[in-house]
Amino acid sequence: YIWESAAGGTFTITPDTVNPPLGRGTEIRLFLKEDQQEYLEEKKIKEIVKKHSEFISYPIQLVVTKEVDVEVEDEEEAKEEEDDAEKSKIEEVEDEDEEKNKKKTKKVKEKKQENEELNKTKPIWTRNPQDITAEEYGSFYKSLSNDWEEHLAVKHFAIEGQLEFKAILFVPKRAPFDLFETKKKRNNIKLYVRRVFIMDDCEDLIPEYLNFVKGIVDSEDLPLNISRETLQQNKILKVIRKNIVRKCMELFSEIAEDKDNFTKFYEAFGKNIKLGIHEDSQNRSKLAEFLRFFTTKSLEELTSLKDYITRMPEIQKSIYYLTGESLTSIKNSPFLEVLKKKGFEVLLLVDPIDEYAISQLKEFEGKKLVSVSKEGLELEETEEEKNEREQEAKEYEDLCKATKEALGDKVEKVVVSNRIIDSPCVLVTGQFGWSSNMERIMKAQALRDSSMSSYMASKKTLELNPQNAIIKELRKKVAEDKADKSVRDLTYLLFETALLVSGFALEEPTGFAKRIHRMIALGLDVDDEGEASATKMEEDNDMPPLEGGGASALEEID
Question: What is residue 485's three-state secondary structure?
Answer without folding.
Answer: helix
